[in-house]
Amino acid sequence: MLIFLYQSTSPPFSYFIYLHPNGSIQAVKKLYLAFSLSLLLSASAFGQVEQVVAHTKVIFIYNFSKYFDWPQDYRQGDFVIGVVNASPTLLVELNKLATQKTSGNQKFVIKNYKSVEEIDKCNILYIPEASNNVLSEVVKKLHGTSTLLITDSEGDAKKGAAINFIWKDNKQAFELNKSNAEKGHLNMSSSLRALAAVNIE
Amino acid sequence: MKHLRHIFCGIILLLGSLYSYAQNSNLEKAQDCEQRHSVDSARTFIDKAMTDAAVRQLADAWYLRGFIYKDMFKKYEPNNLRSAYRDTAVKDLFICYRLDSLNKENKENAFGTLKFLAATYYNNAEMVMDSVNFHWAIYGYNKYKSIMKRMNPAQNFNAFDIRFYDIIGNIYSGYFFSVNDFSVKRKYLDSARKAYDAVLAISPDDYSAVYGIGRLYYNQAVNIINNLPFDASIDNVNKAQDTCIHLAKLSLPYMQKAHLLEPLKIEPIKGLQGDAVMLHEPDNYKLYSDMEKKLKDQQAPKK
Fold first, then answer.
1. Assign residue A160 a region: left if phi > 0, alpha if psi is -120 to 50, beta otherwise?
2. Spatial separation of the C-alpha atoms in residues B47 and B68, rounded to whole Å
């Protein structure tokens, strides 16, 4: 969880020393008007828990959408990104993406599935680490579809996921399972392989 | 011929006396104008009077000129950090003191006004600290210190320095948070860092400065990721992550030290959690998360 850290306001730093022309020292809060504003700004930033991690993942997901070609019936209507039990922060980031970007002529639509039963036709389905327990069920459900399955837990690329988020050298990276990725008539750009930290044939 | 010589000498003496009278008269007029609050006229007369070498030997004359220039500063340039009126006043008052340093009353008068002027430098410095003129704030503060030190060379400013630079560091940190432009952010980060370093040079264990630096680097890392556009390439995301790791490594020792200095404060523990995530150290993240929870439980008001 990443957070912005806000300013400590404990004395003696919450006031400014003012020297009265008679030489005496007084504490005034004048200057801290501007400073308080910045505190408010940073305090609001403090609420953006998990934003950094979520933002990074959404950038990756958006990138993935550009490296694949979906069959014709997935290129009509909206481009659906589904998530199984998305965190509020991840949803905020995905919805930001949906308002700012498109996939060609398709509008991004974000769907947050609360259960496997709810999952319907989507271009991309992301299973966050916390929902990893439903993976095998989801893999069965997606059999024969052209949904790109992205997961976030060690070993998932060998359990049916096309792309699995991993950490490499302290960085967010991903492993790519080519055979899983090309199931369901998905065409993958070969250049994605060069960007993967691990390639699984 | 002899008579002519006497007449000539008489004329010279007369002219000298008249000139001297005129200068003394200018001095008196300056004083009179000053008492009537006609500071502009007072300035004209005192400047004329000070052209006389004899007058320039009078401590009182320098005091009067310093006082008049102080009032010129108050009237015309009270918010000008670089006011020539004030600089002149300070210079004159020190000359006054030098010419008659044994005179207790003279010293008290000169130092009283100098303290006032020193305070105005400090307060002007305060005013420019809420603009982008970091260097002018330091200029004003250093002017304040140099005047005070000349009056009392033994005065120790460490406590003042710590407070001053802590505040500057905090203010620039505040600006760092509030702007979006990266190059501006970088500038504020550097300014804040310099201010905190000035504190740490005097007091290496100053919590506010130690935590302030740790927080700056950590938040810079957070900003770098959060400001990446959605269409950033994976290569660029990787580069941004490299920068974040570098920044988290810079932040970490300061957060650790801040935590050691103030183990009961939540903020450094949160910083350590954040650094742990940035460096992908799940064990440390858990350690500091548990620590935060425990501390919050301890600090929660008992029902």
1. left
2. 10
Q: State the amino acid at position A80 in one-letter form.
A: V
CB of B228 less than 8 A from some CB of A? yes
The second-level CATH assignment, the architecture, of B157-303 is Alpha Horseshoe (1.25)
Residues of chain B with CATH 1.25.40.10: 157-303
Q: Do B174 and A34 touch (CB under 8 A)?
A: yes
Among B residues 153-182, those touching chain A with beta carbons less than 8 Å apart: 160, 163-164, 166-167, 170-171, 173-175, 177-178
Nearest to A171 among B123, B218, B241 (CB): B241
Q: What is the pLDDT of residue B23?
A: 59
Interface test with A, best of B230, B236, B243 (most A CBs within 10 A): B230
Cβ-contact B269, B292 below 8 angstroms = yes
Residue where a domain stops, chosen among A49, A72, A87: A49
Measured between CA atoms, how close is A175 to chain B, in angstroms? 13
- Locus of tokens 């953006």: A48
Interface probe, candidates A2, A37, A50, A64, chain B, greatest B C-beta count within 10 A? A2
Answer positive or negative: Cα dihedral of A27, A30, A33, A35. negative
Q: Do residue A31 and residue A99 come from a single domain? A: no
Look at A21-25, A73-77, B227-231 and tell me which has the smallest mean pLDDT: A21-25
pLDDT tens, position by position, for chain B (303 residues)? 566 565 555 555 555 555 555 556 899 999 999 999 999 999 999 999 999 999 999 999 999 999 999 999 999 999 999 999 999 999 999 999 999 888 888 889 899 999 999 999 988 887 877 656 667 888 999 999 999 999 999 999 898 889 888 888 888 888 887 887 878 888 888 989 998 999 999 999 999 999 999 999 998 888 888 889 999 999 999 999 999 999 999 999 999 999 999 999 999 999 999 999 889 888 998 999 999 999 999 888 766
Is pTM, for the whole model, over 0.80? no
Nearest CA in chain A to B216: A5
CB-based contacts of B16-20 (< 8 A; 24+ apart in sequence): B19/B52, B20/B52, B20/B54
* Residues B156, B160, B161, B162, Cα dihedral to 10°: 120
Do residues A66 and A12 both lie within one domain?
no
CA distance A185 to chain B (A): 24
Nearest to B174 among A21, A38, A171 (CB): A38
* A chain contacts of residue B271, beta-carbon cutoff 8 Å: 5
CB-closest option in B175, B231, B233 to A101: B231
What is the chain B residue with the closest CA to A98? B230
Q: Identify the CA nearest to A100 among candidates B224, B228, B239, B238.
A: B228
